[in-house]
């Protein structure tokens, strides 16, 4: 269905990679094996900062257990709808899911937009390995995955029609480089009220999330949609899994965690900001 296109670049010398059997090669002799699960690791030692290595296996598992309960499925569907609207006039769009995590969103985006080809990247190898499990189990054929950094995207210039970034770091320069002229960017982040009720359990003075400032000066912002809906978590397991996948996991006292462990049911606001940008001319 898709013409064969070699879209990856060598993370060391930036030359285009070509695939031969199960290995991606560049003309300068750098090579990258395709893992048994089917992804390629294109993270250089420079990008492999241990302090910023992405989610570990425990966090990936907590995230997967929680996401598989589909509390965030309405968000995935709404975001796919926004992307579909932006790509109305593109026959076979190429979409990068930047910071794709363990693949819940990528796979749901790919199901909703079957004519698009998705390239998911994440800095966490454990997360990317799980993406492959998701596409094999779900029989999804329009996704490929690589271990890579959003700040050193392993793609050729002006390749993608759209980049989606769901709760992940945003890179002004790299996004502008790999998007086609007039390419679109969709950034999903928590809204001010997202999970406020969870914070009420954890903190004496819970605060609303501040709006994100991205510094995307190579883009024009066209729209922001606030998408909110209520959910009820009916088990301690779901509540703790959700907690483990939030940033609060790192900054909450042991005492507060004990308090949370006594909660069996939690009514929550899920709130998201879905922002749309267009790449400016001249970049
Ligand atoms: Zn190379």
TrEMBL record:
Residue ranges constituting the Methyltransferase domain according to the UniProt record: 95-211
Annotated 23S rRNA (guanine(745)-N(1))-methyltransferase N-terminal domain residues: 8-44
InterPro entries noted in UniProt: 23S_rRNA_MeTrnsfrase_RlmA, Methyltranfer_dom, RlmA_N, rRNA_m1G-MeTrfase_A_prd, SAM-dependent_MTases_sf
Domain of life: Bacteria
PANTHER family per record: METHYLTRANSFERASE, METHYLTRANSFERASE TYPE 11 DOMAIN-CONTAINING PROTEIN
Record-given protein name: Methyltransferase domain-containing protein
